[in-house]
What we know:
Elements: E1 13-14, H1 17-26, H2 39-51, E2 58-59, E3 65-66, H3 69-87, H4 95-105, H5 113-147, E4 152-153, H6 155-158, H7 172-205, E5 207-216, E6 221-226, H8 232-235, E7 247-251, E8 263-269, E9 272-275, H9 283-310, E10 318-319, E11 321-328, E12 334-337, E13 350-351, E14 353-360, E15 374-377, H10 405-410, H11 414-424, E16 427-433, E17 442-447, E18 456-461, H12 479-494, E19 508-511, H13 514-534, H14 540-561, E20 565-569, E21 572-576, E22 581-584, E23 589-595, E24 598-603, E25 608-612, H15 614-623, H16 629-641, H17 659-679
Parallel strand pairs: 1-11
Antiparallel strand pairs: 2-3, 4-10, 5-6, 5-8, 6-7, 8-9, 11-12, 11-16, 12-13, 14-15, 14-18, 16-17, 17-18, 19-20, 20-21, 21-22, 23-24, 24-25
Helix pairs in contact: 1-5, 2-3, 2-5, 3-4, 4-5, 7-9, 11-12, 13-14, 13-17, 14-17
Amino acid sequence: MYTPDAPSLPSAAPLTAAAAARWRAARTAWRLDSRWLAVVPLGFLILAAAVEPDTGGVCNAQGICRDSWGESLAIWTVLAETVLLLARPRIRPLVPIAALALFWYVPNGLVTPVARWSAVLLHVLLAAVLIGADLGRRKARQQLDELMAPPVAFPWTAAGAPSPVRPDGVPVGRRVLGCLLLVVAATLPLYGLWEQQRQEERDAAAVRVTGTAGEFDQDGLLTVHYQAPSARDVLKAAPAGSPTGPTATLDVWWAERPKPGQSIPLLLDGDQVRAEGDDYDPSGQLVFGGLIALPGLLLLGSALAHDARRRRPGFVGAAPALAVRVRADARGDLLVLPVDGPPDGPALWRLKEWERYYWARDGHPDLPEHPGPGWLPEHPDLEGNEEDYPEPVLRQDPDEDEEEYGELVERATPEQAAAWSARAARSVPAVLYRGPDGPDQQLLFRPALLDGDPHWVAAVVAPAARSPRLTRQGEHYRERELAVRALSARTLADAPAAGPDTERLPALRWELPLPVRALAGPLAAVLIATAVVLLGDSGWWSGLVRPLWIGSMAVFLIGGAASWQLVADRDGLRVASAFRVRQIQWRQIGAAAVHRGRLTIRLHSGEEIAISTWLMAALAGHFGERYDPARLARTVALAAHRPDLRPAQARQDRLGSPQHLLNRLSVAGYAVFTVAHYLL
């Protein structure tokens, strides 16, 4: 029978700060074990393309060249290694070892010593990181296994109810699609081999004649004059190199372009004319077949892993569990903390909730098959009963049926933002069943924490322990917007009360140092121009449009990040960026604060001015308040909401000098240099 009482957290083995320290010590190099490691083989591919000689592959007697099978296998090895590092299978520590063996022993795979020893260095380091992370993962899991005994009943088992978690279905779609892709991938090379056999038979039956090379047309096609067998007697009297006779065009991809008048052996097969030795190359079909086979193999591998999970025990009865605390990050994921640590302390790992189930006291009217009280699956299209959810901090306007979360943030008062910020930074106790890095999926049982959470939530979590994100910026929680409002509200609350003796704020000027503002744009232009010269390509896109676009964007971004100047005085806030100065009146500003290394000024229109302050904070520690961004943020926040505290003076400082002139000259000079380099 269902119990009418609300659930409670069961007693489980606590994850203490000491156990967390041992877990961190065991998980060596685990932050490096991410999908970013796929950049390593791609970087090696770029290095090999720069240092390996362009030999043209294997050439025949006619000078017609094809890529060697060793070179093609090396390229395929890099592609397969990149895909496997992105897919993150459990065998990934063996991937760089197998790739290095292929690079080293395949003939003509890597030729130059620089490429070969670079492959050794990069892949040995990559293997060391992956093997170290895997050994640390196993050691940390063993520690958790020892800590989590004995098993703890699942929340629905404790309530005397069956498990609401449905077993996963058979991955029919992945199996069928993977098999279809493999069939197509096998068909393409077979078709290429069949076409190659057909051409060999046509070559054996073709008539061999000698042609004379003519001129190349604008499309790169070579005109060839040849002697037809029926007209051979007529053409015997023609002088050597005469263009008399039939003509044909050849698409030439040879090591050396034929010169006018050069003899070329041809094969006549009916109306078709082709150069002798220009055999059919099935490598194109092999490449496309391999590209299609890779996702097919990944789909079948995913289906096999899914089948293995289906055969594992479900969420029935009891399982080993940990008592932890969880805190939300910027994107709505949950960070695991030790039970006796600070609520804002460093997290151990990150949980991403998949399927969610909530405790419904009276069931749901649209789910008559699940009468309450009990655990119900959470449907995004079904709204639960209000008594199953806590009171939200940011409540939707009843007159706005389609109001988005961002609109709730925009119309939040500073007091609401402060309450939200305090609630978002809190942590709650929870029970984590089975723990991370095991063979089975995890289950997290916790009270409400996120906006829109029911009073009690049980969520299925992936087995892997995800590393916490290095940033808390994201769209789900809009942390910076609300945190800036909350910090502004705190600044206003700490301000002195209005009165005749209240002292006004001083007018301030805050800016990056002059050398930084003056040299950022020109240095960016010089570096990009140097790259254009060293990596110059032909063609209007690679040689002109792309360098212009990339270089201009680099000067804009780098110059813009290092050109800030701000003046807060009686007339408002003046802001100088990379190319312009703008005036902002005090009534337009909604909030200002320094939060997580950024000076953020939010306007009532929703626009935001965000400036990185790490350099200025370092300078303020040595040179005083002149470079202190927190002092400027306090002045802006108070002046925007307290007219009695606004500065009484108006500063006549000139902003934008000299960075505006230098940035404009940098962009113009870089554009002129790029066009001249392309034309000359």
